[in-house]
Amino acid sequence: MTESVAAEWNYDDFVAGTSPLPSPNLAWNSYGKGIESIGVDGKPEPAEIPDPAPNQLLIRIDAVGLCFSDVKLITQGGDHPKLYGRDLATEPTRLGHEATVTVVEVGSDLASDYHPGQRLAIQPDIHVDGRSSAYGYTIPGGLIQYHLIGPEVLDADDGAYVIDVADQIGYAAAALSEPWACVEASYTQRRRLEPKVGGTMWIVGTPGDEAVYDASRGLDAPATIIVSDLSESNRAMVDRLRNPKSTVIEENDLTPEAVAEISVRLTGEDGFDDLVVLGSTSASLVTELAKVIGFRGTMALVGTEPLDGDASVDVGRIHYHYTAYVGTSGSDIAAAWGEARNRADVKPGGVIVVVGAGGPMGQMHLQRAIEKADGPATIIGVDLDDVRLAAASALLKPMAAERGRELIMFNPGGDNDAVAELVKEKTGGRGADDVVVSVPIGPVMGTSAKLLADDGMLVAFAGVPNGTMAPLDLSSVYLGNTQFTGTSGSSIDDQAAVLNQAVEGSLSPERALAAVGGIGAGQDGVRALLEGHYAGKVVIFPQLEGLALTGIDKLAESHPDIAAVLGPDNSWTNEAERVLFETYHS
User: Fold this and answer.
1) Which residue from 135, 227, 277, 535 lies 20 to 30 Å from 564 (Cα-Cα)?
2) E-assigned strand segments in 279-405
């Protein structure tokens, strides 16, 4: 780059959105499965920059975070569930759902709502007529320099899926607001914790159980109640408390083998909105009943004796379908339900364990626990990768020390009991208050759940597919008030909350950044993600050319001017971003 070219380019003009449009406009389109399907011959390809229609915006992509969800699309191609069998060879898509943009041109119909230079973050979890139509999947995403967005983003089910970005938030921080929103969403209540009004409830008793149950609320909600093997007094209780207009169906002499057939016969493929299990000690029966919980359905377990073993539970459905397991050891069934017994956020002053802590999302959970004002006192990060643990430790331990939190980074190696021993030592044998699992392996989730104390919460953060089974001690739900929760994606409100926290200074999204690259590094960024090269997040700046994919530490070594304006422990800053853009702008 010559000095004369550099003098013609002005960062403030760029921020304002008044820089000249590039020629060509480069894009990384995806044509099928495999990394080699991104771009053409390993390079981005030219794309037109059309004028916006009246209902469209021409946007400049300022930064794009890469996510392991992108890897899923690369490995699955058109078979990815959000692509609905699309033939990418003839109708390509484009990765890049963690995007922040600047408005360049505004269609005439949108002039009252948007203006050139306006900065926006895109919320990718877009729904049109109730169907997922996500940006970066169904809608081609942000691995491009400029493109158009219209009603598919700006006029969908929840209106416009874009959020204003304050000037003081950097491009990387704004792009990372989306994965941070997913982290924040995992600590908000997504489960339904009351019986569904107008729904279908199955109340399953235990032959020979003479305990007398009651319900202070809830049994009047369903339109249909199925009852199985209830004592006379409990059958009478149902008749007394149910809605008089509801239908009651008897299905007695229940066996585990009969559960699936009853569910299909009475609900089709939907499953039951609510299941209430009274006094059972059969893990095999509870396992089969768990399989027929409907979307956002609940299972309320009520009893005083433990099950005769672990139940096998679909942890993918906890994550994607928000199935809820609630319980009580008392006689009031309704005590199992409600948010008072089923918290969603971490326990103040408690002990949290993050499994998979060395990865980008695991690090973000650690950082949230450290930065949260009323967060846990002790934070244990577990990973099998020493390099990643060291990187996370270097970045986060000073922050933890500054806030008076104890951060322990631990590699158990091949010792399956080592984590449990560490937790036992740190809690006096009580167990962890919260466990977050960002490793998409069912048995790991099952093992991690055994670390929990009474009233503990397991967050199944990793997106394991539906059908991923894990052994879970569901006795602990009603005897110890254990909670299992999980989330998939985030909402506009979640992302807006993250951006607000960034403005307030209570969250630093950019601290998760580990590597950067220009438009030419798109394919390399996805490859690095797939191969786990970086402990933190990878961000591509499409407006930069000649910037190879580079770790922040290596960038600091090669660019002393950038190193001089990095934050503590090589953390990213707005000043470093400005110098980077002034060095590599296209």
Assistant:
1) 535
2) 293-302, 311-314, 324-328, 351-355, 378-382
How far from the centroid of its chain's Cα atoms is residue 269's Cα? 26
What residues contact 133, with CB distance under 8 A and at least 6 apart? 126, 127, 139, 152, 156
- pTM, two decimals, is 0.91
**Dist. CA 577–CA 548, nearest whole Å:** 15
| Integer angstrom CA distances of residue 304 from 331, 450, 473, 578 | 9, 20, 14, 62
Q: What is the mean pLDDT of residues 544-563?
A: 94
Residue 535 binned pLDDT confidence (cut-offs 50, 70, 90): confident
Helices (H) and strands (E) in the chain, counts: 20, 28
Q: 179: cis peptide before it, omega within 30°?
A: no
Average pLDDT, the chain: 93
Contact 493, 184 (CB under 8 A): no
Nearest C-alpha neighbor of 420 from the set 384, 448, 460, 386: 448
Helix/strand/coil percentages in the chain, nearest 5: 35, 25, 40
Kindly give the residue spans of alpha helices, DSSP state H, lying in 77-163. 151-154
pLDDT band of 586, cuts 50, 70, 90:
low
Over residues 351-387, the pLDDT tens digits come to: 999 999 999 999 999 999 999 999 999 999 999 999 9
340: how many CB neighbours lie within 10 A of its CB?
A: 8
Q: Is the CB of residue 408 less than 8 Å from the CB of residue 360?
A: no
Task: Name, in order, each residue with C-beta under 8 angstroms of 12's C-beta and a sequence gap of 6 or more.
Answer: none
Model confidence over 66-110: pLDDT tens digits? 988 888 888 888 888 788 889 999 999 999 999 999 999 999 999
At position 95, the amino acid (one-letter code) is L
**Nearest-angstrom CA–CA distance, 322 and 336:** 17
**DSSP character for 156?**
B
Over residues 291-321, the pLDDT tens digits come to 999 999 999 999 999 999 999 999 989 988 9
Domains of the chain: 3-186+493-584 (3.90.180.10), 200-336 (3.40.50.720), 351-465 (3.40.50.720)
The string of DSSP codes covering 193-238 is: -SPPTT-EEEEE--TT-----B-SSSTTS-SEEEEES--HHHHHHH
For residue 58, the surrounding DSSP H or E stretch is strand 57-66
Q: Is 531 helix (H, G, I), strand (E, B) or coil?
A: helix
